[in-house]
Structure formats: C-alpha cells, structure tokens
C-alpha cells in the first residue's frame, strides 16, 4: 500500500492505550442465524453495549485527553445528532470539562435527555446536522471554546480505528468489514487499522439512500441529501474532508440501502440477536440484505455502531416489519348495509383462527352508494400464508377484499 494516511496505525495504537479501561471492550460474536439468512459468515461488533450505547465514546475520549489544561478549563463544544454528544458529554463530565452540545431540533428525545443527563448544556438549533454544525462553530468563536468535531478530526478517527483492531483480534479470519458512513470518521479509522493488520481485507461502506453524500462524492456526482431517514446518525449532507481522502484511497466500495432495509435490519437484530440497534447501527446488516450477491460467502464483520433509538420509533419499526411479513394486516372489505354482515365476516375470521385487533366501520366518507359501506379490519396472523388463506376464504364467500399495503 503506497498511500500514507494522515492518521497512522501508530496513532490508533496510541488511542487504544489512552482510552483503555475507560471504554468497554465490546464483544465481537458470530451471528449464526443471520449468517444462514444472508449467506455470508456474519460477525457482529456490539458497540451498542458501550455505556452511552455507541462507538463515539472512543474518539471523543481520545480527543479530550489531547487537550491542554487551558482548553479543558474553558470547555468544549460540539454539534451532533446524538451519539457523539453523549460520548463527549459523558467523558467530559468524568474529566471535569464543561460541555455545550448543539443538536438539530428533530433529534430523538432519548438522545437529548441522555445528553443532558451527562451534564451537558444542550442547544437545539436548525433542522439538520449541518444547521447545528454551523451554529456550534459560531458559538465556538463567541465563547472561546474548543470545537470537537464528530468525525473530521485525527483524534476522532484514531479512536474509531480501535473498533477494527478489536474486531480482528476476536475474529482474525474476517475478509471484509461493512461499515456505516455518515461523515466518515468510523470507516476512516477502521480502514486504516484493518488494512494495516490485514492488507487484503475488503472495506465496504454503507449509506442511507436518502443521504448518499460519500457515495456521490466518491463518484464525482452531485446528489440530493434530504428526507427523514431512520438512520439519522448517518444522515450527513457533507462528509469530512479528512475522512473523504482516507475513504477515497482505502475503502473498496460504498453501497446504498433503502429505508425498508434499515427497518428490517433493526427488527431482525432485536428479534434474532436480542439487541437494540438504531437505524445507523443496523446499516451494515441492511447492506447484506440489499446486496446479497456482494457479500455471499464472505466472512463479514459488522459494527453495530449505536443503539440509541427512540422507543416509540422502535415500536413503530417493529409493527411495520410485522405488517410486511404478513403477521399484521389491515384488510378493507366491502359490505352491504344490512344486519349480520359484520357478524358473518367476523365468523370467517374465527374459522381461520385469525385474531381481530381493530375494526373501522365507514359509512360516510366513501365513494360507495348510500347503502354500501366498507370496513377496515386490522388483524394478526401466524404468517403470510395464513393471511393468504384468510383472504381467499373471504373472497370465496363473495366479499370484495383489498389489503392495505405499507410503503
């Protein structure tokens, strides 16, 4: 390898020594069921088990330990969608360093409250990370604080690189790492470490399709970054310049994943691995589901980089996944306005042993004739085949049935 990255493996080793004993050495474990599902040999690095539930602690602590006494006294400021803020706030409080965090207004409540719980002064500003970032740089100058960048900083990159060192210590046979990309700090550090330890290892980055900033920049293409992604932790419009140079030279490919695959991955990790992962943390698995041919037969390491997901959002994701798998459904059934119609329909549900959850009877807001009506029935089935049998049974009795599909 002729490219000499601005952050070296020696910097990563120094970071590992500096943060040792102050961050959790999280497990890297083989995922047998996910391997069977994806066709890849899957290993998971449980960074969602850090105290603040994300890998960001590593780089944040490494940066804080590099500050002078004067910088520590004045305090630090950062912009973050959540995980960087929590890692920085937690370790800054432990070291007695005042902290201000600027967060976008749509940041999940769980991340705001947890950051405040670590003693930080939280300022909510703007709709996106970029809005919060610009405001933080303004406050930095106004208040003479030290800005701690969430990804575009050598100390942050070196700290992130320790994730790959630990993964390859625990699973030395890995031949590929599939790493989420927002600003690029995690994949930059991991690529430097992994390529040093194992030059032939392949590094694949993953971005949400709504925010393909690194994907587009790698190709020299103008891309649109917008939308309300489940993976808000990697919803970054502009990757770091330091990170981009490293990614351009050391990352083999960047792939995109859709929101549906992110939702499915969050649900699978909870259902199969019994671990809570946020959208960004599930991006690696989402890539395996979206691009199976790319990963099949490979020994792939996936860092579950964060687990801070709002509980209401998690519940919604799980219910939507049940609906897509056919275990939950909403059926729209056309009925005649006469006694016994709803009873007869309910009897067919009972015959097929399908549980009715909700019934919505609609007479007014419909394009049907005045004597016609529709009823929406939300129900719970064993699986998609069970649902199909119910629909066939209803239609065989003369009912007009339509399934209300999810996007």
UniProtKB/TrEMBL annotation:
Its EC number is 4.3.1.19. It holds the Pfam family PALP. Transmembrane segments: none annotated. Keywords: Lyase, Pyridoxal phosphate. It comes from Pacificimonas pallii. This is Threonine ammonia-lyase. Residues 330-407 form the ACT domain. Its cofactor is pyridoxal 5'-phosphate. Belongs to the serine/threonine dehydratase family. The keyword Ubl conjugation does not apply. Coiled coil: none annotated. It comes from the Bacteria. One of its GO terms (molecular function) is threonine deaminase activity. It catalyses: L-serine = pyruvate + NH4(+). CDD domains: ACT_ThrD-II-like, Thr-dehyd.
